[in-house]
């Protein structure tokens, strides 16, 4: 495929992205209960907590020094440069603002089996596939910026007990995600040259859309816990 056609095939997967999942639709409409929001935050914690291990798997499979150097920043972003910093910490603060104790998030007691299964599948994918396919699977980040901006606006509009400070994870993340998405798409376009590689990259992104969708379906089914 020519560059534009390949890019269009990747972007076309936005229709499979979790932005349109019924649980997100309800979140944006303001109809989730506080308990449902806690279920969401405690389960998504599992995703947040494994992202650095997924990124470390990409680094471990990648022979290109420049890519490894770039990718390292993602690990530091989530884990922070020191204790009590980084995306991981911001997510825990969101959990606390929603009424969860840090300990009950960290011990994963609220994580439902299908969320664990879906998230673990993402890490296994990054460990076992060529590094560029794992990068392609992360291209859901291309679609995330728009959704996060909407989420910040709609959550603050509908849930008056949630403050802008509580959403620091998203307000900080929304800045980073556009740059990361661009970086990742450039790598995929540069390193997937054959039709077979391009098709595999599109399939990798479809797989990741399914990971996210499955997570949210499991969270939706878990309801208020
Ligand atoms: O809030 C969201 O809707 C959303 C979506 C995604 C995504 O689409 O993968 C990520 C994030 N957030 C996010 O915060 C994040 O750090 C992140 C990392 C990755 C990835 O696959 O490496 N996706 C996402």
From TrEMBL:
Catalytic activity line of the entry: 6-(2-amino-2-carboxyethyl)-7,8-dioxo-1,2,3,4,7,8-hexahydroquinoline-2,4-dicarboxylate + 3 O2 = pyrroloquinoline quinone + 2 H2O2 + 2 H2O + H(+)
Under the heading Pfam families, the entry gives: TENA_THI-4
Catalytic EC class: oxidoreductase
Reported function:
Ring cyclization and eight-electron oxidation of 3a-(2-amino-2-carboxyethyl)-4,5-dioxo-4,5,6,7,8,9-hexahydroquinoline-7,9-dicarboxylic-acid to PQQ.
Q: Which residues form the Thiaminase-2/PQQC domain?
A: 9-217
What name goes with this protein?
Pyrroloquinoline-quinone synthase
Asked if the keyword rRNA processing belongs to this entry, the reply reads no
**Known pathway:** Cofactor biosynthesis; pyrroloquinoline quinone biosynthesis; Cofactor biosynthesis; thiamine diphosphate biosynthesis
């Amino acid at each position: 495929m020519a560059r534009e056609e390949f890019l269009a095939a990747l972007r076309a997967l936005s229709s499979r992205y979790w932005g349109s999942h019924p649980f997100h639709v309800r979140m944006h409409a303001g109809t989730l209960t506080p308990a449902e929001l806690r279920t969401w935050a405690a389960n998504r914690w599992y995703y947040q907590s494994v992202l650095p291990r997924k990124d470390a798997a990409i680094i471990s499979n990648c022979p290109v020094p420049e890519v490894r150097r770039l990718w390292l920043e993602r690990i530091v972003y989530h884990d922070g440069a020191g204790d009590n910093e980084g995306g991981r910490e911001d997510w825990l603060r969101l959990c606390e603002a929603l009424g969860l104790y840090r300990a009950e998030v960290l011990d994963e007691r609220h994580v439902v089996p299908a969320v664990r299964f879906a998230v673990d599948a993402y890490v296994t994918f990054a460990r076992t596939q060529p590094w560029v396919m794992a990068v392609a699977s992360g291209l859901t980040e291309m679609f995330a910026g728009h959704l996060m901006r909407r989420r910040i606006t709609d959550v603050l509009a509908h849930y008056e007990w949630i403050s802008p400070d509580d959403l620091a994870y998203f307000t900080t993340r929304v800045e980073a995600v556009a740059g990361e998405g661009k970086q990742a798409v450039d790598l995929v376009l540069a390193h997937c040259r054959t039709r077979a590689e391009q098709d595999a990259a599109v399939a990798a992104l479809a797989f990741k859309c399914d990971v996210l969708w499955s997570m949210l379906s499991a969270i939706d089914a878990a309801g208020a816990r």
